[in-house]
Fold this sequence. Notes:
By secondary structure, the protein is α/β, with parallel strands linked by helices.
Amino acid sequence: MKVTVAGAGYVGLVTSACLAEIGHQVTCIDIQKEKIDLLQSGRSPIHEPGLEPLLEKNLRNEQLHFTTNPHRAYSDADIIFIAVGTPETRDGSADLKYIHVVAHTIAHYIEQDVIVCTKSTVPVGTNELIQQIIDSRKPPNLQVEVVANPEFLREGAAILDFFHGDRIVIGTRHPEAAAFMEQFYLQLNIPIMKTDIRNAEMIKYAANAFLATKISFINEVANICEHVGANIEEVAYGIGQDKRIGHHFLKAGIGYGGSCFPKDTKALVQFGGNLKQRYELLEAAINVNKRQQSLPVKKAKETVGSLHGKKIALLGLAFKADTDDVRESAALTIVKELLEEGADVTAYDPIAIPNTRRIVGNAIGYTEDIRQALQDTDLAIIATDWDQIKHLPLEVYLTKMKNPIVIDGRNCYSLQSIGQYPITYLSVGRPGHPNANNMFE
Ligand SMILES: NC(=O)c1ccc[n+]([C@@H]2O[C@H](COP(=O)([O-])OP(=O)(O)OC[C@H]3O[C@@H](n4cnc5c(N)ncnc54)[C@H](O)[C@@H]3O)[C@@H](O)[C@H]2O)c1
Ligand SMILES: O=c1ccn([C@@H]2O[C@H](COP(=O)(O)OP(=O)(O)O[C@H]3O[C@H](CO)[C@@H](O)[C@H](O)[C@H]3O)[C@@H](O)[C@H]2O)c(=O)[nH]1
């Protein structure tokens, strides 16, 4: 089948590479020429495990093409996936400007009947708007059916999620389009849920809101654990054993980041606000997350006093391991706060330095050598649970740092192993925190 994917970002590239891999003829279009030039040379603009080999292979065997030419992309497509960005506007709502442009472009260039499938995360009602834009501008003899098909992939595990997702959601009012989509995805052998457009749109926001709330919930519990001398890892395991709760997404830390949870939770709150329907639980989850991202610097000040002139190693910049994405990363909040305190910061990350430098510039130092980052420092803050950090021999903190004080925002080390070294160690929701006390005393 001839498939076109609009947008060569995370979702667009993973969708393009995976659909080519299962035998479709895929054309991926983007408006950024540099991105398309890079992709045509077989290189990926993003770091995603397993993506580059799939891109290379399918480019070579001509299953996959990249273009900036809308006529080439849209005129003879059987199915078009929209995967353009829906970033956050100043008030937190989703900015639909890329969606509007792509809908206009599709209407202008199509030359045959086509299904248009929206993978971008869009507020309820947007797919109906896309349908209206296309219907009012397309050649009158052509039939276009817009389907909501939200994407649930995680960065760092995106290829795995494409082939082994928990479900595929297909939202359409049109039985033939639903049957077409079901057939299209059949070979993936993933449970398919067919529903209407608005339900599909809402499912995506509700899923992200639930997961973000689960993280803020466990972080709240972690903060209480710190003050009563309990251990959040034991507590999370204990509650997760209840099948109704489950073990996933109960890892306490310095909050969620990335391109989705922060943006989609704010969009849902804003969306509710427009309907005069406050979403108070989600507002609280967002506020808890904000506070959580500020915990490392707060703990640093409580431990060493003024940070002015202190030499600090920031270990990890990406919003989570296995990605070079720093969008809404807790590390960026930490950098901002450390700079406000007048600290001298050197950041380590195996792959996210270029993306960070684009935002932060040279206000901090950077290194891909973790030992160099720690050299002669007064304090280290861990912001990402990279394997390189988790597997660092703990002696390195003693041999490299001026003062071995480690504030671990991702609970990278077991208390047992860290306890064998004279390191001042503060993690999230585990004993050893100086504020710990016995509430029953
Ligand atoms: N990143 C994720 O893990 C993820 C997962 C699920 C859903 N989503 C959602 O998918 C959408 C895309 O996310 P992303 O992270 O891939 O975005 P992104 O910002 O990385 O990429 C979007 C791409 O679309 C391109 N684009 C903009 N207008 C275009 C047009 N008219 N024609 C062709 N290309 C155009 C941009 O140049 C950019 O390369 C968003 O709505 C996001 O919320 C993202
Ligand atoms: O127990 C946990 C799990 C995650 N996180 C943090 O939460 C953030 C998001 O992690 P994750 O969900 O793994 O990454 P994303 O790639 O942002 O994926 C989320 O956002 C995507 C975009 O909408 C969805 O498609 C995915 O289903 C959804 O998991 C990261 O900062 C993690 O460090 C925690 O702090 N504790």
